[in-house]
Amino acid sequence: MFAGQSAMAADDTYRLGVMDKVRIRIAEWQPTDGTIRNWDALSGDYSIGPDGGVALPFIGELKAAGKTPAEIGTEIGKQLQQQFALRNLPSASVEVAQFRPVYLAGDVHTPGEYPFSPNLTVLKAVSLAGGLRRSESGQRFARDFINAKGDMAVYDSQRARLIARHARLLAENNGNADIKMPKELERVPNADELIRSETALMKQRRDRYELQLKALADLKSLLQSEVESLKRKTDTQTRQLELAQEDRDKVSRLSEQGLALSTRLLDIEKRTAELQSTLLDIDTNSLRAKQQITQAQQDEVNLRNDWQAQRAKDLQDTEAEMEKLNLQISTSQQLVAEALAQSAEALKFDPSGKSATIHYSIVRDEGQGSKEIEANEATLVRPGDVVKVSSQLLMQ
Question: InterPro entries from the xrefs (predicted)?
Answer without folding.
Answer: HH_AprE-like (IPR058781), Poly_export (IPR049712), Poly_export_N (IPR003715)
